[in-house]
Design brief:
The protein has 13 helices and 24 strands. It is an alpha+beta fold. The strands form 4 sheets. The chain has a 7-stranded antiparallel β-sheet. A 6-stranded antiparallel β-sheet has the order 1-12-11-8-3-4. The N and C termini lie far apart (65 Å).
Length: 693
């Protein structure tokens, strides 16, 4: 589509009761990011109240008809997905605006390939719109869904806002916090008085908001651009004559109410001794066979999905399910020729008298999905008019590399979508809800905690991806004796499993931190995922190394992971920019002080402007002699590379000596002992704030 064009959704597909909108972008460094927001507007073109402003602190709006599903990696960047249940959008809503905004003074001109795609409930793409001419703006309206004569239509907008998210939200009637205005004006005034002061890390500090009775107080976060115009936005701060000119007080939208989350620290146990075990809702001690594990795991997950609406909606919205009353079933018998089939489960969602149905096929303990089983369920779903088949296993799906190949009969009018969930994704969503985002009440939080305890127990068989595959040992041997040749299919299998492992590391770390953690995939725009993986497989054959990068929200750089199969070493590293003023030795000393709790074997390398490498050394040696990593030739310091090394597990599984466990431990250690210490340096005070004698 081109800017300004519109189209009726019913003319594009029959499955538009619910649609998926994805906003995407890419950058040369893989570091660009933006926040997605949605505004639900009435007939007057305004929100009815603050709850119609949907952003990451309020990810669900319109009685559940709109839900932000978060980011998913693509071959050349990432996409933010938004689920719309159009049949459930309140009747008072005439238009839904889809926008995105950047923070920390960033502009959309720093990103490439700004795009919006819209898909129907079966996952088929219907609309693609490329946004252009957004160079100097920090907020963009990508498009809007609107009603016309009882039909939903889409319009490609592409309108930019130099005043950021605050200007956009204010135009559509979002209420603004008055209690934060004075603080914002004070912050903005300080920035104008001291233009060289270091900018924030993407979020502005906020005055505490009053919490509802009976709920714990917690500071909310809003995007930094939501505080209004920044000092460098000329369009938002017009010049005034005379000494009375003053910055316009910045304002910010209200944030959502705090929901119930589990306490950070557990209560003291009333047990007489540590050998007593707490009673569990979902016991795991009696599980003995794979069949018992599959049956129990399916029943546990589906029952919690039905009882905790936030959790059930979170897992099914991405598959085109509407927001409605959910019921789940297990061991359902369905006719299929002479031998009836029994899918592991069925999910049904009712909304406005319509049913959305998905068959569920579950595998645990690393067992692979069976293509004939999945094919049979796809055929049954098509005949009975069901919408989807969902597979749930330890494996992680990759773009362009389906776990199960199924045949689609193009002669059938009814389309069935095939979706996959990893147990790691289920655990991630449960962690995000009960530890960071919150659910409706304490009972729901307790149910999710019991679910987590079950899924993470060693007997459940639901531990996510845990096997590097049959090609792992032959590839390692081929690298050792230099007999692995380019084009070997086994190298490609290792690359695919390495990508699965990295994605699982991101899910696990993101669930623990409550932050966005995504793999960075540096590839040419528009390149095919299969081609990219083939190139990485050739690189593995040549150099014997597996490389990956992950971006953790709020960190100053990209966390790099390198597995050197020749030496058996794992390297985790991060490049920390050094934009602080001062003499080179002073900058080195500041870094050493920030790493006071880091391990002594941490390697520090100075990055310099121009060709050549800078000096390096271990933290143990540099603590008494920090001048050892100051360039002797006077080269300008641009940053520092911090690295930790550890031995790599040799086994293909996740046992004590397994490769997968060694990667998990390396990433956890590096983040806790290194990255966490350099994430957010203390803001520098202006000269007017220095204490006087």
């Amino acid at each position: 589509m081109v800017k300004g064009a519109n189209v009726g959704l019913a003319a594009l597909s029959e499955d538009v009761g619910s649609v998926m909108v994805s906003l995407g972008w890419s950058s040369a460094t893989g570091e660009g990011d933006a926040d997605v927001s949605v505004l639900l507007l009435d007939g007057d073109g305004k929100v009815r109240s603050d709850v119609d402003f949907c952003f990451y602190n309020n990810p669900v709006a319109g009685n559940g008809s709109v839900q932000l599903l978060g980011k998913t990696p693509t071959a050349d960047g990432s996409e933010d997905r938004i689920s719309f249940d159009l049949d459930a959008v309140p009747e008072e809503i005439d238009k839904v605006v889809v926008a995105a905004s950047r923070y920390g003074g960033s502009r959309f001109g720093e990103l490439d390939d700004l795009r919006l795609t819209l898909a129907d409930s079966a996952g088929d793409g219907l609309v693609r719109f490329a946004v252009e001419e957004a160079d100097e703006v920090s907020a963009v309206i990508f498009g809007e869904l609107y009603r016309r004569s009882g039909e939903w239509k889409f319009r490609a907008v592409g309108q930019g806002y130099a005043s950021g998210l605050a200007g956009l939200a204010t135009d559509y009637g979002v209420d603004i916090d008055d209690d934060a205005a004075e603080e914002d004006a004070r912050e903005q005034g300080e920035q104008e008085q001291e233009p060289e002061r270091e900018q924030g890390q993407g979020y502005a500090e906020e005055a505490p908001l009053p919490e509802p009775a009976g709920q714990p107080a917690a500071p909310a976060r809003v995007p930094a651009q939501a505080t209004g115009a920044r000092a460098d936005d000329a369009s938002a701060a017009p010049a005034q004559d005379g000494p009375a000119a003053a910055p316009k007080p910045a304002r910010r939208p209200r944030t959502a109410k705090k929901k119930v989350t589990l306490p950070r620290t557990a209560r003291k146990s009333l047990a007489d001794n540590e050998s007593w075990r707490s009673a569990r809702l979902f016991p795991v001690s009696a599980l003995k066979s794979d069949r018992e594990r599959e049956t129990r795991a399916t029943s546990v997950v589906l029952s919690v999905m039905a009882q905790v609406p936030e959790f059930g909606r979170r897992l099914t919205a991405g598959f085109g399910a509407p927001a409605g009353r959910m019921e789940t079933f297990t061991e359902v018998t369905l006719p299929h020729g002479e031998s009836p089939r029994r899918p592991d489960g069925v999910v049904r969602v009712e909304r406005a008298g319509k049913l959305w149905t998905a068959l569920v096929e579950t595998k645990t303990n690393g067992n692979a999905l069976k293509p004939d089983q999945v094919q049979a369920y796809m055929d049954i779903a098509a005949r009975r008019g069901y919408e989807a088949v969902i597979t749930l296993s330890n494996d992680v799906a990759l773009d362009g590399s389906p776990l199960v190949d199924v045949r689609i009969d193009g002669r059938r009018k009814h389309k069935v979508a095939l979706w996959h969930l990893s147990w790691a994704e289920v655990v991630h969503q449960a962690q995000m809800l009960i530890r960071h985002e919150g659910v409706g009440n304490a009972a729901h939080a307790w149910l999710l905690q019991e679910l987590l305890h079950y899924l993470q127990h060693e007997n459940s068989g639901c531990h996510g991806f845990q096997n590097m595959g049959a090609a792992w040992v032959p590839v390692r041997r081929g690298i050792d004796d230099e007999t692995l040749c380019q084009g070997d299919a086994r190298a490609l299998e290792v690359i695919e499993n390495w990508e699965r492992l990295v994605r699982q590391v991101c899910l696990r770390l993101g669930g623990e931190l409550g932050q966005k953690v995504l793999p960075v995939q540096r590839a040419r725009r528009g390149s095919d995922p299969g081609v990219r993986r083939a190139e990485l497989a050739d690189h593995l054959c040549e150099q014997g190394r597996l490389n990956a990068e992950i971006r953790i929200e709020g960190t100053p750089g990209v966390l790099a992971i390198t597995a050197d199969l020749r030496t058996g070493k794992l390297r985790t590293s991060i490049e920390v920019p050094s934009a602080e003023p001062g003499y080179p030795l002073s900058r080195v000393k500041r870094l050493i002080r920030r790493l006071a709790e880091a391990p002594a074997d941490l390697h520090i390398e100075t990055l310099v402007d121009g060709p050549g490498a800078g000096p390096r050394g271990t933290l143990e040696r540099l603590r008494p002699e920090p001048a050892d990593i100051v360039p002797k030739d006077g080269a300008q310091i641009t940053g520092f590379r911090l690295s930790l090394f550890k031995g790599m597990g040799s086994g293909r599984g996740s046992a004590e000596t397994g490769f997968i466990r060694s990667v998990d431990e390396a990433v956890d250690r590096f983040h806790a002992q290194v990255v966490a210490q350099v994430e957010a340096p203390a803001p520098r005070r202006s000269r007017s704030e220095e204490p006087t004698g």
